[in-house]
Specification:
Strand content: 15-25%
Structural class: alpha/beta
Radius of gyration: 20 Å
Number of helices: 9
Order of helices and strands: EHEHEHEHEHEHEHEEHEH
Oligomer: single chain
Shape: elongated
Largest sheet: 6 strands, parallel
Length: 249
Amino acid sequence: MEQDLQKQPAEVIYGRNAVAELLRSGRQVENLYIQKGELKGSIVRIIALAKEKRIPIKEVPAQKLDSLCGKQSHQGVAAQVPAAAYARMEDIFALAEEKNEPLFVVICDEIEDPHNLGAIIRSAECAGAHGVIIPLRRSAGLTPVVYKTSAGACEHLPVVRVNNLVATMDMLKEKGVWVYGADMDGQDYTKTNLSGAVALVIGAEGKGLGRLVKEHCDAILSLPIKGRIDSLNASVAAGILMYEVVRNR
């Protein structure tokens, strides 16, 4: 029997009719999960709806869907709804204008650990950033774990999800924003004037900044490493650099 837009505590809606109605409703959707081997019948129409709205689609084994839906009858499909609403780029610009401050944004390049993303959003809100930008794919989204780790900062700080990080960086540069990437082989972060309009780009856990993202940064900033471990946690590095922006301002 089909369910009506039924939610689980983890903000998951399941069942073919329920998910189809969700997609038609215009409500924001984090991911669409399709059971492997179920690419037929009404599932095909659901996938087409998701592609039209640029919603990431993930094929997963039945066990994954069982886990997401609490072993309820999911009929091979489930959708995860963000724990907080995504904002638009216009919201970030409007917040900076409202505060009469040079733009200050944090760009997360494929941060997949939800605890790291949540911690970055929390630090960004505390440091007075005007927004956080994340990519549509290969990134944690505004899941319940991210929301909890951010201590609710997701409700107060615009978080924007974009289809192309490089294009977004170029757009910011056209508006006079200096884009600084965080990486091991850059200049001393304390030797850079960060008092103007700034975008900080934080790389993914382990692999750091993507090649194209790094190439489109105006400069690369590095933190000194004095111990035997060769890198800092992404959220820790982000927090240090954010407060260097605060200090410069």
